[in-house]
Amino acid sequence: MNYTLFLGSTDISDLLIYLSKFLQTAGKRVLLADASAEGFIRYNTPILHTGTGVSEYDQFDIGYQFTDFQSMKEQLEITQAYDHTIVFCSTPDFIGEKDWEEFDQRFIAISSERRSLEKTAELLEDMLGQREEHLPRIGFVRLFVQQVDNGLAEDYLEQLLCNLPLRFEEQSFIVPFDEMDYMQKIMNQNSSSISIKRISREFRTVIQEIAGSVSQLNHSELKVYAKKLSRRSQPVWGM
């Protein structure tokens, strides 16, 4: 099973929902686990909250009651129900010291808003501040969302995190701010089906590239599934 981690205190629920749907369209069994303190995934999707803590949404599953990564992993390894588990975390206690290497890839989500930057820095301080010095630095891919072209977010975050035992990979992803992306996000939040029909070309490209990064899909396959997902009908509000 593939585990992918997204850390941060900015709302990337739309990106993760599109990513999950992309992988599902490619024939993968996907669980999107919401370990955000804010409940970004749970409350930004029209799912029915079940007693199991896992709900189906447009042919992939959303989990919203897992309390820590290790117990979640043990449960998932028993059931073998998924090929990909995507974890969105802004809760320091969810991931233990020994869990970092369980993830095939780790992303930090960064927006230009000061609150998001400060909260993300606090999160990483809580999670990594006591890490023993002899242990290797934790590698992260930077994911810049709702970006305006000023470079402030990247510079400020690196200043805040300079003393923590982490390192940034050379690869990064950037999603510029776009009103159409926001409009599509709101439409999808109120629909039982997901569409990327009206999102920007830049956002669509990032989704495809991240899907390739976390899976074994080659370039030709990514293009086929991106086209298939793009052809889905625009959702109707409340349907």
Task: Note down, in words, how this protein is organized.
This protein has 239 residues and is α/β, with parallel strands linked by helices. It has helices at residues 13-25, 40-43, 69-79, 114-128, 152-161, 179-189, 201-214, 219-230; strands at residues 2-7, 30-35, 54-57, 60-63, 84-89, 105-110, 138-147, 166-176. It has an eight-stranded mixed sheet, with helices on both faces.
Concise structural overview:
With 239 residues, the chain is α/β, with parallel strands linked by helices. The chain contains 8 helices and 8 strands. β3 and β4 form a beta hairpin.
Please tag this protein with its features:
single chain, 239 residues, alpha/beta, eight-stranded mixed beta sheet, 8 helices, 22% strand
Number of helices: 8
**Secondary-structure element order, as H and E?**
EHEHEEHEEHEHEHHH
The share of residues in helices is: 25-40%
Largest sheet: 8 strands, mixed
Class from helix and strand fractions: alpha/beta
Strand order of the largest sheet: 3-4-2-5-1-6-7-8
Low-confidence stretches: none
**Rg (CA only):** 17 Å
Please tell me the overall pLDDT.
90
How many strands appear in the DSSP assignment? 8
Strand content: 15-25%
What overall form do the CA principal axes indicate? globular
End-to-end gap: 33 Å
Summarize the helices and strands and which ones pair or pack.
Elements (H helix, E strand, L loop, with lengths): L1 E6 L5 H13 L4 E6 L4 H4 L10 E4 L2 E4 L5 H11 L4 E6 L15 E6 L3 H15 L9 E10 L4 H10 L4 E11 L2 H11 L11 H14 L4 H12 L9
Parallel strand pairs: 1-5, 1-6, 2-4, 2-5, 6-7, 7-8
Antiparallel strand pairs: 3-4
